[in-house]
């Protein structure tokens, strides 16, 4: 697949209904959505840092590298709503 450009809008259902809009490039709509969600998460962390005064590790947003792979139903249920971190 050849890459395409997407404008992705994500609305967080918090008290303010915060909306994040990201312009991303991806080889599929799924990849674009994942990239946009990662960028929105980084922006949310940056805004929280400004609000609380605690520093963010990285200045600015960095476009993530996305890899998606199929998993079994058992693996999904074992790890659903879990995020693991491997900081190298």
Explain what the structure shows.
This protein has helices at residues 29-52, 73-79, and strands at 4-11, 19-26. With 88 residues, it is an alpha+beta fold. It has one domain (4-79). The chain has a two-stranded antiparallel ribbon. A hairpin with a 7-residue loop joins strand 1 and strand 2. The chain is globular, with a radius of gyration of 15 Å. The two termini are 30 Å apart. The mean pLDDT is 82.
Oligomer: single chain
In spatial order, strands of the major sheet run 1-2
Strand-and-helix sequence, N→C? EEHH
The helix content, as a percent range, equals 25-40%
Query: How many domains comprise the coordinates?
Result: 1
> What general outline do the C-alpha atoms trace?
globular
Main sheet overview: 2 strands, antiparallel
Determine the number of helices (DSSP H or I, runs of at least 4 residues).
Answer: 2
Poorly predicted regions are none
Strand content: 15-25%
Number of strands: 2
- What is the end-to-end distance? 30 Å
Backbone structural class:
alpha+beta
How would you briefly describe this protein structure?
With 88 residues, the chain is α+β, with helices and mostly antiparallel strands. The chain has helices at residues 29-52, 73-79, and strands at residues 4-11, 19-26. The chain has one domain (4-79).
